[in-house]
Design the sequence.
């Protein structure tokens, strides 16, 4: 079932082909935000060229095949599908011709250190009853939480998510006045953990809802309670599964972009963004040792290497570039030769010391002895992603960004800890059933996606002003230069990257 979109530019089932009428655009990087920006600007009449260092599009949404096992390398949860539908309708395309998805009845299965197992159902009443039956948490507390995060979303969505915080026009719109009046409801002065401790009676409930800080690489014991809004996306709006897995998202967007006439240049890193002599106007890029003229340049690279590597002669926004970075991830892609019925599509095996785990991540920049483990098994929904009788495990823990650690030692220690934790939780052997293994650590994330220090989400959100300390989606000093992706406003994760593309296209219309 598709969710109704909010944008429409054409009712045709075929994308429009009007590229080139308004000028030339160079997009640097083909992550989700880069692809979405290319689609929007091509739909608006620009000739768009995308330059990608890798051999294929997708950025963090990569894919790995090994011995019959198919692994998505990056994001695994699909929320706010209407953003994808809106993008395709904006381009005049029928989403059903490119991809399909369905809503999940069971969002995630949670395993607690005390042996309790909770199914996070998508239906609110069923979810609340599950909390009461399994954890002893009054159902009314869950309903109050869901109502609170909906209020936060309704206040923040039109301003913080759909608009530029850095454009004065935003603050003259009616939604801003509504958000201003509702500021106390954003709960920005307390931490997420402090707010959850007031909302919930049981420590397991607090731990579960504290988890949502990790969705943008933050620490729930430091990040503002406003970030509770992330839970709204799953529990009030729903979690979904894209048929074929998350790589379907990239394949569909790439195909639409090509259908619109967007040109892609893979294995083609950009060496420099070219500026006018006075450093105030974009005039193109350098790639493959040649100058390529462009009227607009949009960088989907992390904001730090964009400035440090591609704009060496320009003025750099040092305060923004030097903000604390988010956490990263260590992922093992294990091809298992047996099935584990106790596990579902999405699973969390919680640490026995959650606060201590985050202290290691954000203070000492190392790993705890009992990390929380996330297991995503797409073969539960797509049997073809693993050989018959087997499963494809995406086994992930949060880790700090690169800060001089001995990663080889940390990775081997973490692998043993993760296997020991999974085996003790399930009461079944794991190590003996691993047939294939592929790894991705912060060093690989940095090298493969140009993410500064391997941070997955750019800057951390561990203070109440974090939303205002992300780089704008446009340059205040260089005309024709724009930015999209997880390291700029409004933040990391697929939905926010899609929204950053929307904001870029809006700013291009305003400023061109």
Sequence:
């Amino acid at each position: 079932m598709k969710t109704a979109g909010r944008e429409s530019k054409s009712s045709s089932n075929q994308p429009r082909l009007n590229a080139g009428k308004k000028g030339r655009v160079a997009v640097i990087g083909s992550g989700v935000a880069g692809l979405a920006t290319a689609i929007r600007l091509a739909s608006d009449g620009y000739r768009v060229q995308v330059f990608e260092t890798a051999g294929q599009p997708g950025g963090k949404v990569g894919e790995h095949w090994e011995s019959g096992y198919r692994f998505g390398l990056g994001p695994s949860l699909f929320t706010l599908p209407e953003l994808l539908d809106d993008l395709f309708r904006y381009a005049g395309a029928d989403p059903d011709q490119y991809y399909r998805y369905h809503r999940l009845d069971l969002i995630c299965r949670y395993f607690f250190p005390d042996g309790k197992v909770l199914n996070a159902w998508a239906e609110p009443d069923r979810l609340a009853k599950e909390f009461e039956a399994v954890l002893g948490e009054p159902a009314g507390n869950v309903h109050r939480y869901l109502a609170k995060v909906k209020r936060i979303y309704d206040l923040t969505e039109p301003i913080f998510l759909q608009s530029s915080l850095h454009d004065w026009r935003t603050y003259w719109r009616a939604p801003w006045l509504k958000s201003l009046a509702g500021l106390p409801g954003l709960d920005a002065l307390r931490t997420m953990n402090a707010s959850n401790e007031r909302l919930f009676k049981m420590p397991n409930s607090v731990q579960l809802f504290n988890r949502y800080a990790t969705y943008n690489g933050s620490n729930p014991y430091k990040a503002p309670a406003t970030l509770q809004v992330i839970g709204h996306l799953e529990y009030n709006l729903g979690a979904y599964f894209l048929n074929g897995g998350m790589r379907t998202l990239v394949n569909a967007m790439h195909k639409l972009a090509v259908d619109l006439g967007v040109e892609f240049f893979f294995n083609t890193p950009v060496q420099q963004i070219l500026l006018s002599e006075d450093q105030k106007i974009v005039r193109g890029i350098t790639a493959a040792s040649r100058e390529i003229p462009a009227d607009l340049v949009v960088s989907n690279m992390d904001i730090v290497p964009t400035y440090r590597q591609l704009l060496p002669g320009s003025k750099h926004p040092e305060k923004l570039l030097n903000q604390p970075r988010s956490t990263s991830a260590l992922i093992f892609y294990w091809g298992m030769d047996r099935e584990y019925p106790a596990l579902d599509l999405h699973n969390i095996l919680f640490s026995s010391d959650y606060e201590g785990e985050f202290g290691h991540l954000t203070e000492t920049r190392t790993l705890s002895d009992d990390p929380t483990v996330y297991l995503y098994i797409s073969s539960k929904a797509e049997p073809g992603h693993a050989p018959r009788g087997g499963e494809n495990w995406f086994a992930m823990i949060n880790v700090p960004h690169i800060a001089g650690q001995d990663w080889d030692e940390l990775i081997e220690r973490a692998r043993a800890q993760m296997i020991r934790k999974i085996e003790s939780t399930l009461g079944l052997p794991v190590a003996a059933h691993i047939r294939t293994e592929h790894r991705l650590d912060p060093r690989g994330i940095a090298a493969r996606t140009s993410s500064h220090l391997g941070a997955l989400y750019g800057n951390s959100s561990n203070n109440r002003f974090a939303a205002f300390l992300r780089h704008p989606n446009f340059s205040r000093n260089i005309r024709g230069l724009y930015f999209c992706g997880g390291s700029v406003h409004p933040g990391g994760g697929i939905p926010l990257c899609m929204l950053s593309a929307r904001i870029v296209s809006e700013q291009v219309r305003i400023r061109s």
